[in-house]
Amino acid sequence: MRYLRCLSTAVLALAIGLGVAAPAGAVTSRIKDIASLQQGRDNQLIGYGLVVGLQGTGDSLRSAPFTEQSLRAMLQNLGISMQGNRSNAKNIAAVMVTANLPPFASPGSRIDVTVSSLGDSTSLRGGTLVMTSLTGADGQIYAVAQGSVVVSGFNAQGDAATLTQGVTTSGRVPNGAIIERELPSKFKDSINLVLQLRNPDFTTAAGIADAVNRYARSKFGAPIAEARDSQEVVVAKPKTADLTRLMAEIENLAVATDTPAKVVINERTGTIVIGADVRVSKVAVSYGTLTVQVTETPQVIQPAPFSRRGQTAIQPETDIQAEVDGGPVTILEGPDLRTLVAGLNNIGVKPDGIISILQGIKSAGALQAELVLQ
Predict the structure, then answer these.
(1) What pTM does this model have?
(2) CATH entry 3.30.70.3400 includes domain 186-257
(3) What is the DSSP string of 274-291?
């Protein structure tokens, strides 16, 4: 039995009136929660290594020749020659090692690393990552990783069944990398602070600059912040200020944040997220659902008794039913978020229907917000 479900949404935009958008209540947040320091960003590290000690779940050396080459090179560095010999061991796997170098990290501190299989290994559980150098985008080595791999998933296999939960070909080495080199730039050497908004917005950027300048006028007697655009706010360092203490005091200032009106729709999962500033002009909505049901009931036809030429055949039989559920025309208006959600719920449709209605309202020009489809 197969089902084909089609949604039909009729949306009529009526010039009856426009919903007046009331000012939304401002949300107050700390600067550290809505912006990040440009000098304090992470740096990505990458390396290639080997995981040993696997229980027969490693790479097949014939299928993954780079694993055998890496094994030969590692043993040769240790003074062991494998010339003319071929290994069939299944307890070793080639992996990529990745990590994030935190800002202001100093040599000797430790960071976590992620280990991911490159070959046909089926599991990294129980393995140990051997010494692997991690390099940055400039090709310099910034950390060295080594340690036991922690894998959260598992894989159980029998003759007639297999059970897999999570990912067994990827794991982590907690505190597995030691930082060997620090970043060339120093925080104290900066002449200003550049704050980058996580959600770019001109109103919020101007609010951050105003909050910093109010603080600066009371302490230094002059403004020090300027909003360059919707994402960056530049704070100049006063001559008598310590940059670390200045940042510590600025990041705890409270700012009223603002965001543009958006409706985010994920059609795959049926998720709908409506922002607080979304407004809908007055429209008339009629929603209907068309359900088509196709049923296949094949019939087996047998030949007559003692028939020499007759043979068994299958005769197809298909039954198709169509059902249309129509709804009344409903007036929908959303001067605020609560009224909009209540109006959508009163229509009595499921999330997939609401998604179609919102798309239709946007096409009619009555949705005063950005519609984001994922």
Answers:
(1) 0.66
(2) yes
(3) E-TT-EEEEEEEEEEEEE
